[in-house]
Design goal:
The structure holds 3 protein chains of 3 kinds. By secondary structure, chain A is an all-alpha fold. In chain A, about 75% of the residues lie in helices and about 0% in strands. Chain A contains 8 helices and 1 strand; from the N terminus they run αααααβααα. Chain A is extended, with a radius of gyration of 21 Å. The N and C termini of chain A lie far apart (about 65 Å). Chain B is mostly helical. Chain B has 2 domains: about 90 residues, no CATH class; about 290 residues, no CATH class. Chain B is built from 15 helices and 2 strands. Chain B is globular. Chain C has one domain: Helix Hairpins (Orthogonal Bundle), CATH 1.10.287.3510. Helix content of chain C is about 75%, strand content about 0%. Chain C contains 3 helices and 1 strand; from the N terminus they run E-H-H-H. In chain C, helix 1 packs antiparallel against helix 2 and helix 2 runs antiparallel to helix 3. The longest helix of chain C has about 30 residues. The chains are: A mainly alpha, B mainly alpha, C mainly alpha. Chains A and B meet through helix 2 and helix 3 of A and helix 6 and helix 7 of B.
Chain lengths: ~170, ~400, ~110
C-alpha cells in the first residue's frame, strides 16, 4: 500500500465520519460545522484526483459561500433551531433502510462494470490546465450554451431568493 | 557568492543535501524540507507582526501628535514584547454558555487563514512556498476561511454584542469580496494565468500603470476586507463594544489581534504582487536577494498608505458602507472588467500585441470610468437625504426628533 | 495509484448518508445539508471518471470538469433559493420543521 493510498483512506474516513455527524448531530449549528469538515475532506479528495482548480473552488464556493450562507440562516432562525425536539422523524428506520439499500445497489451495479478496478495513474503535468476548461466553456461548438444557461440560472436564483426572502412588512413600513 | 546572491535557495539546497546524506528516502526528504520551510515562513510572519505592531503604534502616535511607545528599549522598540508577556500571562476567562468547539476554533482559523496566503506569494525570483497554478483562487478561498472564523467567534461567544459584531463583519466582508474578486480578474486577464508567480513574470509593465482604476478599487476593497478605517465597523468600540471578539481574553484575544495586523500586511503583500510587479526591478532576476528587497520596499509603501488612510479618515456608517460597495464599486468594477476585456480582445484581434501600444487605450478607459464613478458619487452626495431636526425648541439628542427629509 | 473503485465507493457512501439525512431529518435546514452531501458525492464521481478518461486518452478531456462546474453553479443557486424559502416560511409559520408544514394536507 503506497503512502498516497494511506492518505486517501484517512481523508475518506474523516469525510464519511463527519458526514455521519452532519445527519445525526442534535444541534443544527454543529451539523453545519461538521458539514464544513466534510466539504474540506471532499476538497482533499479532489486534490488527490489532481483536480487542483476544483479543490480550491470547493473551498471557495462551498465553504466560503454556501456553508456561510447556511450558518447565516441558522443564526437568523435561532429560536427554532435551538428547540430540543426529536431530530429524526418517525420514519427514520425506513429512511435508513432506503439509504443502505441504495448503497448496496450502487456498489452491486458498479462492481459488475469491467472498469471498476481501474487504477488511476498520476496524470502528466500540463494536461490538466485551467486554460483548457476555460476555452471549452467559451467555445460556441462545445459548452458555451451550458455555461450561459448556468449564468442565467444563477441570476434567476438570485432574483428569486431576494423576492422570496424580503420582509414585506418592513418594506411597507418604509 | 552564491550565498550572497540567493541565501534562501542556497540554504535549502544545503539542507536537502544534508538530509539525503543521512540516507533518508527522497519522499521523506521532500516532506521534511517542505515542513521546515513552512515552519520558517509561518514563524517569520508571526515574528514580523511584533515589528508591525510597534511601527503602527509609533506612526499613529505621530499622526495624533503623540510620541507613541518610547519607554522600553530604543524608540520603544521592545514595547510589543512587554505586551506579549502581558497577554501570555493573562487569565483565560471563558464565559458560561459558550459553544466550546466554535469558540476555540475561531481564533485559530483567523490566524491560520492569513498565514496560508503567505505560502503562494513569490517573495523573489526563487523564493516562494509553492507555485500553485490556481494561486489567485487559493488566496480568495483561504480568505473565506477567515470569514468563517469571524462568524464562529460571533456565534460561539454566547453574547449578543459578539453576534451583532459578527453579523456586521460578515455583511461587510461578503459585500467587499465581490468588487475585490472582479478587480483581481483584470490582472488575471492581462497576465493570462492564475498563478501568482506567473503573474509577476507577466508584469513587464506593472499592472497599476495598465489598470489604475482596478488597482484603486482593489485597494479600497482590501481596506474593507482587513477592517481598516474608514471601514473599521466590525470593531467600532463606541457602537458595539468590541465586536465579535468581545468575549475573548488572554492569548485567544492575542490571536485575533495578531490576525488583524497580519491581515493588513498580507493585503499589502498581495497588492504589491498583483499590481506593483512583485519582485520585478533592475537586476532582480540575476540576484534574487535584490528582488526580495524591491518587493519589501513596494510592500512597505503600500502598507504605509494603508496606515496613513487608517489614521486620518473617519468611519463610515453601515448603510453608507454597504451602498458604497453595492452601488458604486461593484458596478464600476464590472464595467471596467467588461470594457478592458473587449478592448484587449479587439486589439489583439487587430494584431496589436505590444503592451506599449495597448497601454494608452487602457489608461483612457480607466480615466473615463473613473470620471463616471466620480460623477455618480457626487450625484449621490448631492441627492442624499440629510437628518434635519424637526419641530420647534425641543431637545435635539432624542432619536424621535430626527426625521429623514430630502434636501 | 488509487483504484477508481475506492473513489466510487466513497461517493456511494456519501450519497447514501446524504439520502438518509434528506429522508430522516425533521428540520428543513438539515434536509438541505443532506442535499449538499449528495451533490458532493456526485462531484467526486464526476471528477474520478474525468481522471479515468484523461489517463486513457492523450488529448485533453474537459467534459467531466464542465459537469462538475455546472454542479457547483446549481448547488449555489439551489442553496440560495432554499434558504430564502426557509426564512420566508419561518417568518409566516414560525417553524422550519418539515412535518409541520402540512398546509396542503386535505
Amino acid at each position: 500500500m503506497t503512502s498516497l493510498q494511506i492518505v486517501f483512506l484517512i481523508i475518506a474516513a474523516v469525510t464519511l465520519a463527519s458526514a455521519v455527524m452532519v445527519v445525526t448531530a442534535r444541534r443544527l449549528m454543529h451539523a453545519a460545522l461538521w458539514l464544513i469538515l466534510t466539504l474540506l475532506g471532499v476538497a482533499a479528495v479532489f486534490a488527490t484526483l489532481q483536480a487542483n482548480f476544483f479543490a480550491v473552488v470547493q473551498v471557495l464556493v462551498y465553504i466560503g459561500a454556501i456553508a456561510i450562507l447556511i450558518i447565516f440562516a441558522i443564526m437568523m432562525t435561532r429560536e427554532v433551531m435551538s428547540v430540543t425536539g426529536p431530530r429524526l422523524n418517525r420514519g427514520w428506520g425506513w429512511a435508513a433502510a432506503a439509504a443502505a439499500g441504495g448503497l448496496a445497489g450502487l456498489v452491486a451495479v458498479l462492481s459488475t462494470w469491467q472498469g471498476f478496478q481501474t487504477v488511476l495513474e498520476p496524470l502528466p503535468s500540463g494536461s490538466v490546465g485551467v486554460g483548457a476548461l476555460g476555452e471549452a466553456f467559451l467555445d460556441p461548438n462545445r459548452f458555451a450554451v451550458p455555461f450561459e444557461v448556468a449564468s442565467v440560472l444563477l441570476v434567476a436564483a438570485m432574483v428569486g431568493a431576494i423576492y422570496i426572502a424580503v420582509d414585506r412588512k418592513v418594506v411597507e413600513e418604509q | 557568492m552564491d550565498f550572497l546572491k540567493d541565501p534562501v535557495t542556497f540554504l535549502a539546497n544545503q539542507l536537502v543535501l544534508w538530509l539525503t546524506g543521512l540516507g533518508l528516502p527522497e519522499g521523506v526528504v521532500r516532506f521534511l524540507s517542505f515542513s521546515i520551510g513552512a515552519a520558517i515562513l509561518a514563524t517569520s510572519s508571526l515574528l514580523f507582526v511584533i515589528f508591525l505592531i510597534w511601527f503602527e503604534r509609533k506612526l499613529i502616535g505621530r499622526v495624533q501628535d503623540r510620541l507613541g511607545p518610547n519607554r522600553l528599549g530604543p524608540f520603544g522598540l521592545f514595547q510589543p514584547f512587554a505586551d506579549m508577556l502581558k497577554i501570555f500571562t493573562k487569565e483565560y476567562v471563558t464565559p458560561s454558555g459558550v459553544d466550546p468547539v466554535p469558540y476555540n476554533l475561531a481564533p485559530v482559523l483567523a490566524v491560520s487563514s492569513v498565514m496560508a496566503i503567505w505560502a503562494v506569494i513569490p517573495f523573489a525570483n526563487t523564493i516562494y512556498g509553492v507555485d500553485l497554478d490556481v494561486g489567485v483562487v487559493f488566496v480568495l478561498a483561504v480568505g473565506g476561511l477567515a470569514q468563517l472564523g469571524i462568524i464562529l467567534a460571533g456565534w460561539g461567544s454566547n453574547n449578543k454584542y459578539a453576534l451583532l459584531g459578527g453579523f456586521r463583519a460578515l455583511a461587510q466582508l461578503l459585500s467587499y469580496e465581490i468588487p475585490m474578486v472582479i478587480t483581481l480578474l483584470i490582472p488575471v486577464m492581462l497576465a493570462g494565468t492564475l498563478s501568482l508567480t506567473g503573474m509577476v513574470t507577466a508584469q513587464d509593465v506593472p499592472f497599476v500603470a495598465v489598470a489604475p482604476l482596478a488597482a484603486l478599487i482593489f485597494f479600497i476593497a482590501n481596506l474593507a476586507e482587513v477592517s481598516r478605517a474608514p471601514f473599521d465597523l466590525p470593531e467600532a468600540d463606541s457602537e458595539i463594544v468590541a465586536g465579535f471578539n468581545i468575549e475573548y481574553s488572554g492569548l485567544k484575544f492575542g490571536f485575533f489581534y495578531v490576525a488583524e495586523f497580519l491581515h493588513g500586511f498580507t493585503s499589502a503583500l498581495l497588492f504589491a504582487t498583483v499590481f506593483l510587479g512583485g519582485w520585478r526591478g533592475p537586476l532582480a532576476e540575476e540576484i534574487p536577494i535584490l528582488g526580495f528587497i524591491y518587493f519589501a520596499i513596494k510592500t512597505s509603501l503600500v502598507y504605509l498608505t494603508i496606515l496613513l488612510v487608517d489614521a486620518t479618515v473617519p468611519r463610515f456608517r453601515i448603510d453608507q458602507l454597504l451602498n458604497f460597495s453595492w452601488k458604486l464599486l461593484t458596478p464600476l468594477a464590472l464595467a471596467l472588467l467588461v470594457a478592458m476585456a473587449l478592448v484587449d480582445r479587439a486589439m489583439v484581434g487587430m494584431g496589436v500585441e505590444s503592451i506599449w501600444i495597448r497601454l494608452p487605450v487602457f489608461l483612457a478607459l480607466n480615466a473615463g470610468l473613473f470620471a463616471a464613478g466620480a460623477y455618480f458619487l457626487d450625484r449621490a452626495r448631492r441627492r442624499a437625504p440629510r437628518p434635519v431636526v424637526s419641530g420647534g425648541p425641543r431637545p435635539v439628542a432624542r432619536p424621535e426628533n430626527f426625521t429623514m427629509q430630502p434636501k | 495509484m488509487i483504484p477508481l473503485s475506492w473513489y466510487l465507493m466513497l461517493a456511494a457512501a456519501l450519497f447514501a448518508i446524504g439520502l438518509f439525512g434528506v429522508l430522516a431529518r425533521r428540520n428543513a435546514v438539515a434536509v438541505l445539508l443532506g442535499i449538499e452531501l449528495m451533490l458532493n458525492a456526485v462531484n467526486i464521481n464526476l471528477l474520478a471518471f474525468w481522471h479515468r478518461s484523461q489517463q486513457l486518452s492523450a488529448e485533453p478531456h474537459v467534459t467531466g470538469l464542465v459537469f462538475a462546474a455546472i454542479v457547483f453553479a446549481v448547488a449555489a443557486a439551489e442553496t440560495a433559493v432554499a434558504l430564502a424559502l426557509i426564512i420566508s416560511v419561518y417568518r409566516r409559520r414560525d417553524t422550519v420543521v418539515v412535518d409541520e408544514l402540512d398546509l396542503l394536507r386535505g
